Amino acid sequence: MASVKLTNVKKIYDKNVVAVHDFNLEIKDKEFVVFVGPSGCGKSTTLRMIAGLEEISEGTVEIDGEVVNDLQPKDRGIAMVFQNYALYPHMSVYDNIAFSLRLKKTPEDVIYDKVTKAAEVLGITEYLMRKPRALSGGQRQRVAIGRAMVRDSKVFLMDEPLSNLDAKLRNQMRAEIILLRQKLDTTFIYVTHDQTEAMTLADRIVIMKDGFIMQVGTPDEVFEMPDNLFVAEFIGAPKMNIIKTELVLENGNYYVTPFGAKIPVDGDKGKALADRKVKPGPVLLGVRPEHINLAKAADHAIPCTLVVDEMMGSELHLHVDTEDGTRLIVRVPTLELDKEERKALTVGNKLHITFGGKAMHLFDPETEKNLLA
Amino acid sequence: MNKTEKRHMGMKALNRVSNGSIYILLILISVIWLIPFVFIVFQSFRVESTQQVGYVIPHQWGLQNYINLWNSDFKRWYLNTFIIALASAVLVTIIQLCMSYTLSRFRFKMRGPLMRFMLILGMFPGMLTMIILYRVLADIGLTQANAVPGLILVGFASSGMGYYVSKGFFDTIPKSLDEAARVDGATRLQVLYKIILPLAKPIVIYTVLTAFMGPWGDFVFARYVAMGTSAGYNVAVGMYSWLTADQIFGMYTTFCAGGVIVALPVTILFMCLQKYYVEGVTGGAVKG
Questions:
Q1: Which residues in chain A have their CB less than 8 angstroms from residue B203's CB?
Q2: What residue segments make up the domains of chain A, in order of their start?
Q3: Which of A25, A91, B100, B186 is most buried, most CB within 10 Å of its CB?
Q4: What pLDDT digit, counting tens, does each position of A4-56 carry?
């Protein structure tokens, strides 16, 4: 069990390509932290620096209070699961899991106990004598997790462990990782590019872009109060709608005016704007697809045309064009629609949409920072 | 029988004919290829005369030629050759595989230029170095009767330069296997012999075989370094000395027996190891 602390960690490759800029983060004991971001954002590099597979150009990494910069991976007290499983193909599943224990010269009976116990937890007991090539993707990933489990390490590192699995298996394994975490009760650092994985697994999410940390927070925090436009668009699926508009102040009340409508920024958000004395002017307005409602024609309703209609089962994703050609996505639960309403949602039809002040996110168009964060 | 069935049968017959003719051709080729070997084996058992004759199957069979071999310098030459080939095989394999692993897995300054330099250097024929190498070996006393250590030295000295084939093979083994093993607690050396080498068995075998075969059949260099001293001969040089005008009548069949004995270990080695040439072992390592 251990904490991990990264202080001013930098990764500079040859020819001055900076992969990670000044990374500062303290991960508490037994915390599950997920690094998430698009490919090339430096999340895997950071994880590999913690693992000791990548040299740290500047800064320090501490595990359990000890600076580990110059330690070999095996001396850092970590275990790691790789994206492509990295099972030793010439060894049986049993030998794969036992490999690290044998290197430590653990007695064979202890190895037997540990391997069979891990196999039981992961449900791979019947495959122990098989070679990795005789296993399916999901089983291979379980073996890889088993291999990491028996090491009794202080920190569990996972580098996109589910990205090679198909969608159904991925959902199943995600749930199993949650269970595994409860059983192991250790510190987890998990890298993924999939925001759903990040949201469902993490205690805290670290969202990265181009080697910078964009925001660190709990899944709730990054969803409800994204620090900047990047986080707002990255977290949530389908992604947040961003609308260029004006923030207007009238009689002490704030309004936004998207597509000619005038929508009050009420509730806490309005108050927060007033408290910060935010100046009126151009803003980027963010509204999540699930916070947009279909409406009857009215003053504050925005007229638009349905362009694409994606039936997802329990919900509809409607791609609509406003009169000035801005494309917005609206998410409508199918249960809330009666037959007539569903019929009206055919491509080419006109509809009206509204959204409330509570659901709005406001960003500075220049700095792209959240005006309320 | 309807029309489609008939056509099906016709196709089958055609297939059989074309397959049959291919097999006949292949059998013919292999017979032609085997004739010299069979010829030599027959000659080695011919005891009615020791010179070349105009027929293949001996009139009188016997082991006299092999007994002659045993009583000649052949034992010494054979041992010389075996020591040189074995030592070269071991040393060349170790050096070449370490070199290939290093070039495949480590990134260091001048790696690219070093690899190109060795590649270009390797394009010059080894014969070009013969005179200077002889000079060097003579100066340190590794010629004539001491030709064996001299030839071993020549055999493995530049072996690192033959890295390309095994490096190419190592490159196909995913790096994440190394990383997983290092996280699991293996040192770089343990990664090499516990993970990489078992996966690279075909290439290890290939390296051993080629490293063994080179000195085993060496003639030009061995003759040059031994410089007429029988104690420093290898089999090729020694047996060649039987083919001179004054020896050939008495030694021809003994020469053939020597040829059979020389071919034996290599044949056995190939038969034992050939399955590794075709075996692929990386299946299931990573997603695939």
A1: none
A2: 4-233, 238-363
A3: B100
A4: 999 999 999 887 888 999 999 999 999 999 999 998 899 999 999 999 999 99
**Interface residue B183 vs chain A (CB under 8 A):** yes
Give pTM, 2 decimals.
0.81
SS3 at position B68? helix
Kindly tell me the burial class for residue B52, based on how many C-beta atoms sit within 10 Å of its own C-beta (0-12, 13-18, 19 or more).
exposed
Q: Mark whether B215 and B143 lie in a shared domain.
A: yes
Of B64, B83, B114, the domain-final residue: B64
The CATH fold assigned to A238-363 is OB fold (Dihydrolipoamide Acetyltransferase, E2P) (2.40.50)
Query: Rg of the Cα trace of chain B?
Result: 25
The single-letter DSSP state of residue A87 is -
Question: Is B20 in the same domain as B89?
Answer: no
B51 and B7 share one domain: yes
In this structure, is residue B284 part of a structural domain? no
pLDDT value of residue A1: 61
Q: How many distinct structural domains can be found in chain B? A: 2
Minimal Cβ distance to A103: which of B179, B185, B287: B185
**B254 within 8 A of B69, measured Cβ to Cβ:** yes
Same domain, residue pair B183 and B211: yes
Question: What residues of chain B lie within 8 A of the CB of A151, using their CB?
Answer: 184
- How would you write the pLDDT of chain B (288 residues) with one tens digit per residue? 677 777 787 888 888 899 999 999 999 999 999 999 999 999 899 888 888 888 888 888 888 889 988 888 888 999 999 999 999 999 999 999 999 999 999 888 899 999 999 889 888 887 888 888 889 988 998 888 888 888 898 888 888 888 888 898 899 889 999 999 999 989 989 999 899 998 888 888 888 888 888 888 888 888 888 887 888 888 888 888 888 878 778 888 888 999 999 998 888 888 887 777 655 444 334 443
Q: Is residue B116 a part of any domain in this protein?
A: yes
Task: Name the residue range of residue B24's domain.
Answer: 3-64
Tens digit of each residue's pLDDT (9 = 90 or more) over B214-265: 888 888 888 888 887 888 888 888 888 888 878 778 888 888 999 999 998 8
Q: Name the domain boundary from B64, B86, B103.
A: B64
Q: For residue A303, is the peptide bond before it cis, meaning its omega torsion is within 30 degrees of 0?
A: no
Q: Could you tell me which chain B residue has the CA closest to the CA of A130?
A: B284
| Cα end-to-end span (Å), chain A | 33
- Contact, A321 vs A286, CB < 8 A? no
The answer to whether residue B283 sits within a structural domain is no
Other Cβ atoms within 10 Å of A222 Cβ, number: 27
| Residue B122, both tokens | 């390797």
* ipTM, 2 dp: 0.83
- pLDDT averaged over every residue in chain A: 89
Nearest to B283 among A85, A99, A133 (CB): A133
Best mutation target among A95, A99, A191 (most B Cβ atoms within 10 Å) is: A99
* Inter-axis angle of helices B74-105 and B64-71, nearest 10: 80
Nearest neighbour of B284 by CB, restricted to A83, A132, A164 = A132
- Is B147 a member of any domain? yes
Q: State how far the Cα of B38 lies from the Cα of A268, in Å rounded to an integer.
A: 99
